[in-house]
């Protein structure tokens, strides 16, 4: 499938890679791989993207200067999911939460992702508040959101009659968020009331 083909391109390509593409991006190419790719099409774009190291800076230009911060490059396997609720997630729920957390990293803040079975069901992005992003994500996910995992790129400033409770009322099974709010306990209490598993990552994405 396409996902498998994309994964294969994360290593240097060789002559055995024979699927049709418009654009190819890989860390490197063997001579045989380049020969095969160049022979496919005159319009094929072949790009080389070296892997960047860790602890790189992310830069954004502003009027009169630059803003610099550490890049959001922590590997998924280095994230520790800590259960904050009374109910711990099942193995499948934890897997869904990890996938949702991986996805929400690449969504513009305020970002909410709903996922299940390694599939993103709904996404809300770029909204001025987390509730609006959540509602967009639920609108996209529909009934499939029941029992799914929800990831938020930053903490929930409020819980009751806000995003956390709305997520619980709409049938979400697990919520993953960074934590760090003065009202984290409200989020925990709300999830406990609805029997939802709440996970803290200790790391935020918050991509502007």
TrEMBL record:
Domain of life of the organism encoding this protein = Eukaryota
Keywords, comma-separated and alphabetical: Hydrolase, Multifunctional enzyme, Purine biosynthesis, Transferase
Q: Which GO terms describe its cellular component?
A: cytosol
Pfam (any one): AICARFT_IMPCHas
Asked if the Swiss-Prot or TrEMBL record annotates the protein with the keyword Iron-sulfur, the reply is: no
Give the residue range of the signal peptide.
none
User: What GO biological process term is on the record, naming one?
Assistant: 'de novo' IMP biosynthetic process
Keyword Protein biosynthesis among UniProt keywords: no
Q: Which Gene3D superfamilies match?
A: 3.40.140.20
InterPro entries per the UniProt record, alphabetical: AICAR_Tfase_dup_dom_sf, Cytidine_deaminase-like, PurH-like
- Molecular function (Gene Ontology), one example: IMP cyclohydrolase activity
Q: Report what the protein is called.
A: IMP cyclohydrolase
Question: What species does this protein belong to?
Answer: Aegilops tauschii subsp. strangulata
């Amino acid at each position: 499938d396409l996902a498998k083909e994309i994964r294969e391109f994360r290593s240097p390509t060789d002559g055995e890679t024979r699927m049709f593409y418009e654009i190819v991006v890989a860390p490197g190419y063997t001579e045989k791989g380049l020969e095969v790719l160049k022979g496919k099409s005159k319009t094929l774009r072949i790009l080389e993207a070296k892997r960047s190291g860790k602890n790189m800076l992310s830069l954004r230009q502003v009027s009169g200067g630059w803003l610099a911060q550490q890049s959001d490059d922590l590997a998924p396997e280095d994230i520790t999911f800590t259960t904050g609720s009374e109910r711990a997630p099942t193995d499948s729920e934890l897997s869904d939460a990890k996938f949702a957390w991986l996805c929400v990293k690449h969504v513009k803040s305020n970002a909410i992702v709903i996922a299940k079975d390694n599939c993103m069901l709904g996404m809300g992005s770029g909204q001025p508040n987390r509730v609006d992003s959540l509602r967009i994500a639920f609108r996209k996910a529909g009934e499939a959101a029941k029992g799914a995992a929800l990831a938020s790129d930053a903490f929930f400033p409020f819980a009751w009659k806000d995003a956390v409770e709305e997520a619980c009322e709409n049938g979400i099974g697990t919520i993953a968020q960074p934590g760090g709010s003065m009202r984290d306990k409200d989020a925990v209490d709300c999830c406990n009331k609805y029997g939802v598993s709440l996970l803290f990552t200790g790391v935020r994405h918050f991509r502007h």
